[in-house]
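Everyone, study these two lines:
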Amino acid sequence: MGAQLREYKQKISSAQTTKKITKAMELIAASRIQKAMARVRASSPFSRAVTRAVSAVATHTDIDHPLTREPETVTRSAVLLLTSDRGLAGAFNSQVIKEALELAELLRSEGKEVVFYLFGRKAVGYFQFRQMVAEQEWTGEADTPTFETAKEIADALLAAYNLDEAEGGVNEIHVVYNRFVSMMVQEAEQVRLLPLEVVEADQAADNSTSEVYPLYEFEPEPANVLDALLPVYIQSRIFNALLQSAAAKQAATQKAMKSASDNADKLITDYTRLRNNARQAEITQQIAEIVGGADALAS
């Protein structure tokens, strides 16, 4: 009985220690998510402004631009996968990796070769463990992504898009990331960045009814305007996806740590009940031994 009591006490102490850690991590995630959401809100006006400008140029001109032209045949696709650098976030990373792999299978079934670009240590580790090849990797800034990193990713993707297929270029670019919906919901989402789909992009950035644009006169030529706007547009879309992923990760961490704290409370309650039962059984046994010894002496 004494050994059993010690075992229960050790388990209770372990659960209490775990609860302290998970509770602290939950509070840290709750404080970080406010900063992450503030960054998402701060980037929205610029993203909407660039979206309106690109939509205006594409709507009111019939220019044939490389970033808006639909290729006749798509043989090579790039997939940018955004994950976190750390775990302890429930199904945050597994669901976005699953979404990316399903997208890759769909593209392969259409006869396209898939090239992966990875952001986050979890994606890199997943690919390395399974000996899967990635074209390029970025790690270390998943919690607080910077615009410089988004620009670097956008430049790498645009460079691959502008290359010929024989030189390793791609015909289309997809991005897969976790979108922040609410504190309890984070959805894995896939978006085709290039060739540009202005209607889809406008709806994703503005999330409002269709806007009627006035007639524009462009100075300089529309081609020059698109040359300047579209790379900035791609950078803003990637940066927004990075910020959305960072906010969703903090929300997933808070939810996972709260669940872990609740489970620790349940374990503490269960083990305390078992410890009390064991202690009561030990006391009852000792009383029975004393009574039995007294009866033996009396007889």
Remarks:
- DSSP finds six helices and five strands in the chain.
- The chain has two domains: 2-19+263-298, 27-254.
